[in-house]
């Protein structure tokens, strides 16, 4: 069996060594133009040329959860695309989002500023009932995040494409229930895939539906949020703040107004990192399942775009 690996920004040597160790019978190599035909490709943001040249693939594994970059390419019809299915990401996402929600709810930034000013002062305790959190996307990551938030007794709402019943979460589904979901939420967390249906979802009108003093946490893709509309709602006071991990252009250009905005907390697309050994274990187990003719979780529905 032959496996080719390509990534635009991951540690190639570590991935190839890890895949080779997990697949001792296979030949694992770095993809380069003109290399021998492979059975499987393991990739992150590959060039079109890889797909054009590797016409005999049995499956293509994406070393991330989101496939928006991959689906911009011209993919051979019927080629199974398998994305990472958790592989250690959901716990990271739950940590990140709970940290952002709690930091905002408990006003820890203000306490830090007071401590720097040698100021011993208390703020009035807030009720978590006044901070319902809405999670856009109830997939692998969104469900874990929603559950983690519910553990802290925040009222939690969720929104997905297809209807769900999840203990402790008020579930909404489809475009018809989006307004009700937004109006019920004060904090909104975006964990949607980026598709034609979800691009620019958080625009001026939808952000206006959040409860006053709203808060936005975007950990999905930058293009879910209309930057200028977010800034306008922060500046008008309708929104109290935002924590943003993802941006339309990454790295975020130094001239972008998000950098210096007093109500925005930024991180450099790090909320849930691809963990190499967990990911390799998952990918290799799925290759074995495919070889046995079994279905695997995480297969992308290219018509839906995720
Ligand atoms: P997933 O399991 O595919 O879940 C996607 C969720 O979004 C599902 O609940 C799906 O609804 C819902 N959805 C999709 N299209 C929708 C629509 N038009 N209307 C309403 N709901 C819709 O994906 P995941 O593994 O949780 O990952 C989610 C995203 O997180 C990824 O696509 C990626 O962009 C992002 N991500 C970011 C980082 C980071 O470090 N910042 C790391 C990993 C992933 P159904 O349940 O009905 O299908
Ligand atoms: C990271 O953003 C991913 O999609 O895995």
Describe the 3D structure:
- The protein is α/β, with parallel strands linked by helices and 306 residues long.
- The protein folds into 2 domains: 2-87 and 274-291, Rossmann fold; 89-266, NAD(P)-binding Rossmann-like Domain (Rossmann fold), CATH 3.40.50.720.
- Helix content is 31%, strand content 17%.
- The strands form 2 sheets. It has a 7-stranded parallel beta sheet with strand order 8-7-6-9-10-11-12, sandwiched between helices. It has a 5-stranded parallel beta sheet with strand order 2-1-3-4-5, covered by helices on one side.
- Strand 10, helix 8 and strand 11 (239-244) form a beta-alpha-beta unit.
- Helix 1 packs across helix 9 and helix 3 crosses helix 5 (140-151).
- The two termini are 28 Å apart.
- The model has no long low-confidence stretch (mean pLDDT 98).
- The protein binds NADP nicotinamide-adenine-dinucleotide phosphate and glyoxylic acid.
- Glyoxylic acid binds at residues 64-66, 274.
What characteristics describe this protein?
306 residues; alpha/beta; Rossmann fold; 2 domains; seven-stranded parallel beta sheet; five-stranded parallel beta sheet; 9 helices; 31% helix; elongated; binds NADP nicotinamide-adenine-dinucleotide phosphate; binds glyoxylic acid
């Amino acid at each position: 069996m032959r496996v080719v690996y390509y990534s635009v920004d991951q540690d190639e040597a570590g991935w190839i060594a890890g895949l080779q160790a997990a697949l001792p019978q296979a030949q694992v190599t770095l993809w380069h133009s003109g290399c021998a035909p492979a059975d499987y490709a393991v990739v992150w943001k590959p060039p079109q040329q890889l797909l054009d040249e590797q016409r005999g693939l049995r499956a293509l594994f994406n070393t991330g959860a989101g496939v928006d970059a991959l689906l911009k390419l011209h993919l051979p019809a019927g080629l199974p695309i398998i994305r990472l299915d958790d592989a250690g990401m959901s716990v990271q996402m739950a940590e990140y989002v709970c940290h952002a929600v709690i930091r905002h709810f408990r006003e820890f930034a203000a306490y830090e500023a007071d401590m720097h000013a040698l100021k011993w002062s208390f703020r009035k305790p807030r009720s978590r009932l006044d901070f319902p959190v809405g999670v856009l996307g109830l997939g692998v990551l969104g469900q874990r995040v929603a559950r983690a938030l519910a553990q802290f007794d925040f009222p939690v709402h969720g929104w997905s494409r297809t209807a769900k019943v999840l203990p402790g979460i008020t579930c909404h589904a489809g475009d018809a229930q989006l307004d009700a979901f937004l109006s019920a939420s004060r904090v909104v967390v975006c964990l949607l895939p980026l598709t034609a249906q979800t691009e620019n979802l958080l625009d001026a009108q939808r952000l206006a539906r959040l409860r006053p003093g709203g808060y936005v946490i975007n950990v999905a893709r930058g293009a879910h949020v209309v930057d200028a509309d977010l800034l306008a709602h922060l500046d008008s006071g309708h929104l109290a703040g935002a924590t943003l991990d993802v941006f339309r252009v990454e790295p975020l250009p130094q001239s972008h107004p998000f950098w210096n905005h007093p109500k925005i907390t930024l991180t450099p697309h790090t909320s849930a990192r691809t963990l190499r050994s967990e990911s390799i274990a998952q990918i290799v187990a799925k290759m074995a399942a495919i070889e046995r003719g079994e279905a695997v979780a995480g297969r992308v529905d290219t018509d839906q775009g995720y």
